[in-house]
Specification:
Number of strands: 12
Strand content: 15-25%
Shape: globular
Helix content: 40-55%
CATH architecture of the largest domain: 3-Layer(aba) Sandwich
CATH superfamily of the largest domain: Response regulator
Number of domains: 2
């Protein structure tokens, strides 16, 4: 795992544990113990992945995530949030802001490494996608540049929203359950809440309009043909 990983965590013992285990796997690690510094380092270093604790001094992890995902230079960096409580409301909020995955404290270092590797593999696979341009009416999805445009201009999507839109738009007319969508964009070991797909769909409709993705009552969603 020869990647640069930024760890934003204020508890020094946990920070040292994470850094030690990542370095054992061959990763380069940069650390920060505050939200403000974490945002600055992410913009400066452009790491391959960010591991973000939610409970931070100053600005909390939710605000850090929001700032990074609204910044064009950092919004596509994979981000895994760390939550102490594991409450559904925290998880849904983080996913809605654009986090790619989450892990709850206390966690096993082996599980943490596995989750990081899964997110990194997923990103590498997406970069190899052969169909670089998907056109559906006035909707254009450029998978090589991670850009989505409509008749109203470019839409600023989170990485999870982008993957979900690409998955659905690649199969117009097909109906997918929430579980199928989770497996299609996150792989089977993604720890997902029942509401997460609905949250991403709401986000897509706000940014693209309600005409592209249709709810099939009692089943799931499909991209309109």
């Amino acid at each position: 795992m020869k990647k640069l990983i930024l760890v934003i965590e204020d508890e020094e013992d946990i920070l040292e544990l994470i850094a030690y285990n990542l370095q054992k796997e061959g990763a380069r690690v940069k650390t920060s113990q505050s939200g403000e510094e974490g945002v600055r380092l992410a913009q400066q270093l452009r790491p391959d992945l960010i591991l973000l604790d939610l409970m931070l001094p100053g600005i909390n992890g939710f605000e850090v995530c929001r700032r990074l995902k609204q910044n064009k230079e950092t919004r596509l960096i994979p981000l895994i949030m760390v939550t102490a409580r594991g409450e559904e409301t925290d998880i849904v909020t983080g996913l809605e802001l654009g986090a790619d995955d989450y892990i709850t404290k206390p966690f096993s270092p082996k599980v943490l490494i596995a989750r990081i590797q899964t997110v990194l593999r997923r990103g590498a696979r997406e970069e190899q996608d052969n169909e670089s341009i998907i056109r559906r009416g006035d909707l254009v999805i450029d998978t090589s540049r991670y850009q989505v445009t409509t008749g109203n201009g470019e839409a600023q999507l989170t990485s999870t929203e982008f993957r979900l839109l690409r998955f659905l738009a690649s199969r117009p007319g097909w109906v997918f359950t929430r579980d199928q969508l989770v497996n299609g964009i996150h792989e089977e070991d993604f720890a997902v809440t029942p509401r997460s797909i609905d949250v991403q769909i709401v986000g897509l409709r706000k940014k693209l309009g309600a005409n592209y993705i249709e709810t099939v009552r009692g089943i799931g969603y499909r991209f309109r043909e």
